[in-house]
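Page 42, continued from yesterday. The earlier attempt failed because a stray header line got pasted into the input along with the sequence. Redoing it now with the clean sequence only.
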Amino acid sequence: MTIRVMLVDDQELLRTGFRMVLQSQPDIEITAEAGDGAAAVEVLASAGGAAVDVVLMDVRMPRLDGVQATRRICLDADGLPRPGAPKVLILTTFDLDEYAFAALKAGASGFLLKDVPPPELVTAIRSVHAGDAVVAPTTTRRMIDRFAEVLPVTQPPSGPTALAPLTDREREVFLLVAQGRSNGEIAAGLTLSEATVKTHVGRILAKLGLRDRVQAVVLAYEAGLLRAGSR
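This time it went through. Structure tokens are written below.
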């Protein structure tokens, strides 16, 4: 199956570099490009989104930044996931732009650094296309630790309410996922098999309406269950 990719970046040189890397892969095809978020939304709307599976999205661009573009691509007017929308990977600088955290809330599937090695870029695109998050839990946690310190608190802590659908065991697993623990680490800490942990994680995501482990970390911060620097 061919993965159809859209490149969105205001720097043509960077788009050219990504295009050269990705076009060398037999299962990846560049089907669209845009120089800013507004153009990306327009291109996807004109094609009905049917020609793109994964969007590689820069954050800081003229006219419409990557956060707003991601929100328009991934969410409908009511803030709900848009059926059939392409997956979005956010491109960040080495210094980790705080707007990337907002992009996760807007529906992005993860982070990539602009200097990502070509093999990791390719693997990330394939992973997102398959429905997985592209950022390892520990890396996600480290990045969000930085973002959480500069983000405004929009709602009071709602931890108990947010986790109401979960059993006691699922709440334990959820908090460990939010702390950046891998399935193996969770299994060792709770004396469970990795298969059991994987089942718990799947049920947790389904019950809470989360797309992946990245969104679990976001929810934990928003609900006041974690704070920057906590482990």
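Notes: Confidence is low (pLDDT under 50) at residues 152-157.
Reminder to self: strip header lines before submitting.
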